[in-house]
Design brief:
It is a single chain. By secondary structure, the protein is mainly β. The protein has one domain: F0F1 ATP synthase delta/epsilon subunit, N-terminal (ATP Synthase, domain 1). It is 13% helix and 47% strand. The protein has one helix and nine strands. The strands form two sheets. It has a five-stranded mixed sheet, covered by helices on one side. A four-stranded antiparallel sheet has the order 4-3-6-7, with no helix packed on it. A hairpin with a 2-residue loop joins strand 8 and strand 9. The chain is globular and about 40 Å long.
Length: 119
């Protein structure tokens, strides 16, 4: 899904779409290396691992955020996609899967979501 010149954000969980936002100025996502990546229109393609924390997105004068569990970030064609277990407030604090299994499941979801047949 290409958005042309428009920057978009899509947050997905195994249960479905958590957030879809379009015509954004910037998106900031916390990464596993301890830093935060700032994304604007025209950002190079990237796949990275995220940590639990706030994803901040700006649209004009409005600054919004959503607090997400760790996941996978995919940037391509001005679309920022985040695959996560869900919002911190809405997901049970008793997650029993090891982190590696959860990460592998999220990677597989990303692969399935980005294959040409699913676009």
């Amino acid at each position: 899904m290409s958005l042309g010149n428009e920057l978009g954000l899509k947050v997905l969980s195994p249960e479905g779409i958590i957030l879809e936002a379009h015509n954004l100025d910037a998106v900031n996502v916390p990464l596993v290396d301890g830093g935060t990546i700032g994304i604007r229109r025209g950002h190079a393609p990237l796949i990275a691992e995220t940590i639990q924390g706030p994803v901040v997105y700006k649209q004009g004068a409005d600054l919004n955020s959503i607090n997400l569990h760790a996941g996978v970030l995919d940037i391509r064609n001005n679309l920022v996609t985040i695959l996560t277990a869900g919002e911190v407030e809405q997901t049970s604090s008793d997650i029993t899967r090891p982190a590696e299994t959860e990460f592998d499941r999220l990677i597989q979801t990303l692969i399935n979501h980005t294959e040409p047949d699913n676009e």
